[in-house]
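User: Show me a protein chain along with its predicted structure.
Assistant: Here is one chain, sequence first, then structure tokens.
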Amino acid sequence: MLRRIMLAGLGGALALPRASWAAQDFASFLARLQARARAVGIPESIIQASTYGLVPNQQVLKLDHHQPEFTLTWAQYSSRVLTQTRIATGQGKYQQTQNLMAGVTSRYGVSADVMLGIWGLETNFGANQGDFNVIDALTTLAWDRQSHYFGAEVIKAMTIVARGDAPVANLLGSYAGAMGQPQFMPSTYLTTAVSFSGNGAPDIWNSDADALASMANYLAKAGWRPEQPSSESVLVPSSLNTAMTGRENMQTIGYWEQLGVQRLPGAIPLPSGTPAALLLPDGAGGQAFLVYENFNVIRRYNPSDFYALAVGALGRMILT
């Protein structure tokens, strides 16, 4: 979705062989991108306002070329993202937006905990949205990677401007082109962002209401089940066969309980026939989770098991 293109993987999948473009001139690339925009009806004034004078953004190139390559365990990852500071900030934001979240939940059927979890992990509740000009960043990535995908996102960003939703200067986000509090790619903004009040264009940068409603709309469209959590901590017997674990092995709560898996006090009451998978992110001896169908909905937002677990955990911690 969104910016969750897992840049390294997607860019490689859509890129042309380096030998075919290494010597390509940025200006000629930009001219072809502008021609693509004209071909789909972007007004010339918007094309010029978006791309006039653009040169490759060296900071974008630096960040893209030097993405850290390391592997964290779940214990390490969760200790970094589920901090007491983040939890306390989330509790404060929940107090400020409790009535708003109730309204969003009523409209979209998505609970406050998952909205808080995503909001906190994506942008620290709106505080860290990124300050890159999205069209600048996306054009740089499209050129450097020779990526049709990023080029298409440039044109989608121009479309946002052409619709009058926001001027070019207001399209700010990450170096990968993800925008606003939900960190939506331009194409996702066009299909999913909503104005909660129903008046005017969605403002996912400055409006908590629009940002939260847009997140909820994305999850609802992805199949969110209001009656279920996404995940929960459980206890597992040491004798459990770990080969049976993994999100692909959906069984039922009753099945796992027969094998000795224990849900914890305070867990949401669920029918024993509810589909669930058992996840041991750090293997035997580490934390254990039952994950439900909503877990895979969160993975539509970001295709990472750790991310989806952290969203669920952060939301629970904030509301506990």
